[in-house]
Specification:
Blueprint: H1 11-22, H2 28-43, E1 55-65, E2 70-75, E3 82-83, E4 85-88, H3 96-108, E5 114-115, E6 117-118, E7 121-122, E8 126-132, E9 142-152, E10 167-172, H4 182-195
Parallel strand pairs: 1-9
Antiparallel strand pairs: 1-2, 1-4, 2-3, 2-10, 5-9, 6-7, 8-9
Helix pairs in contact: 1-2
Length: 196
């Protein structure tokens, strides 16, 4: 078994299967997505990497400052919308939670983020399946099977924009920007409930 994704399976793939097998979502739509993700992983040994087309897992996190009741969103240059931090898994990622946390730290510039935990371990907040053109604007759409976490920022944390963003801003939970979609709004609502 290898963590590079070049063998028949990887440490990351095994973690994704374990994470999604153990996770119990609260609603039927999320349960169906969980089963769909597991079916994808059963069919695709490389299903956690961007090279797996037409679908692959991704990892993301809503960065929140619970003390201030705010969420940090990035204005994504390709999508033109305010989104949570996240992206593709990389060969060095040991598990989905680490991939989500790595992306959140890189894109937020906040080094001391921690993922929300349940029984001592990071757990997904929700799943989201969406179409994107991550292989290029002139290439066919493919499917991101996003595993979404909640990253907790220290009170008063200062964000630092990366080259991956057009803009980076904190928004009050009750005043999300217009250019967000239902998935982001749902993730923020879940984060708010889980950290209240």
């Amino acid at each position: 078994m290898t963590a590079t994704g070049t063998g028949t399976t990887s440490t990351l793939h095994a973690d994704a299967v374990r994470t999604l097998t153990d996770w119990r979502p609260a609603d039927q739509d999320q349960e169906q997505l969980r089963l769909d993700y597991l079916a994808h992983l059963a069919e695709q040994p490389e299903g956690v990497y961007r090279s797996c087309l037409p679908a692959h897992l991704t990892a993301s996190a809503a960065v929140i400052d619970p003390a201030a009741g705010r969420v940090l969103l990035t204005l994504h240059p390709k999508v033109g919308m305010w989104l949570q931090m996240g992206g593709h898994c990389e060969p060095g990622d040991a598990d989905l939670a680490s991939a989500a946390l790595r992306e959140a730290v890189e894109e937020s510039g906040i080094p001391d983020l921690t993922l929300l935990r349940e029984n001592g371990a990071p757990v997904p907040a929700k799943l989201d399946r969406h179409q994107v053109r991550c292989t290029g604007k002139d290439r066919p759409e493919n499917t991101h099977l996003d595993v979404q976490y909640i990253a907790l920022a220290p009170a008063g944390a200062q964000a630092l924009i990366s080259e991956e963003s057009l803009d980076l801003r904190w928004f009050d939970f009750d005043r999300l920007p217009e250019l967000t979609d239902h998935s982001v709004r749902d993730l923020v609502a879940r984060a708010r409930r889980l950290t209240a």
